[in-house]
Amino acid sequence: MTIPSYAEAVRYVRRQPRINTSTLADGLGIRWSLALDYLERMARSGVVGAIEDDGWWPVARSHGQPIARKQKPAGATKIGTLQQPHQALHQSVPENAASALAAHATSEHDQQQLMDKLREAARVLLAERDNIQKLRDACRLLIAEREAWKRRALAAEARMLTEEAEEIDQRRFDALRRVLARELHPDYAPADQGDLSLREALFKSIWPKVEQIERKGRSG
């Protein structure tokens, strides 16, 4: 998106009776700090007047600011026909000229202080906006890490339950294997029983299947 230039901002401002920073920023779709910079440049070039107490700039109706016409002091009178021109000019100067000049300088100083405060406020707002964005990014990262840990915990719990079940099955299988070996293996047959051949035949038939089941269990 192209940022409106200073000339475009001037054309926009000249169509308004008065302007402030928010109106210019919203009207041109620019940042508040850039709008403030444009208005300060316009104030220096005479496009707008000095900022008022409510934060608005009056828009000049011409390219230059009108110059106030000096009025003749009420107490200025002619001394005589012999008075020289420079003497008459000297007496036409108001007695409060110094105080008026000092008041004007004070007003400019106050305006400059106000501009400095507005610029500082804009910098603080931009910094706070950046801090808020950083906090949002940090919160999203923490949420993602929490979900990852939750998934790992669930997976570990599932593995633990599976291993526990497999261990129980293995213990049961080992117990059954020992019972079959004790009951069917010829070496464990009592000497006074005549079914030795039957026990041996059963052992040779069943034991390979038991070993096959055990091998499958180990290989998963």
Task: Pick out its properties.
mainly alpha, two-stranded antiparallel sheet, 69% helix, 2% strand, 220 residues, Arc Repressor Mutant, subunit A, 6 helices
Care to describe what's here?
With 220 residues, the protein is mostly helical. Among the domains are: 62 residues, Winged helix-like DNA-binding domain superfamily/Winged helix DNA-binding domain (Arc Repressor Mutant, subunit A), CATH 1.10.10.10; 60 residues, no CATH class. It has six helices and two strands; from the N terminus they run H-E-H-H-E-H-H-H. Strands 1-2 form a two-stranded antiparallel sheet. The longest helix has 88 residues. It is rod-shaped. The two termini are 61 Å apart. About 15% of the residues have low confidence.
Please report the distance between the alpha carbons of the first and last residues. 61 Å
* Individual helix count: 6
Strand order of the largest sheet: 1-2
* Main pleated sheet: 2 strands, antiparallel
At the fold tier of CATH, the topology name of the domain at 1-62 is: Arc Repressor Mutant, subunit A
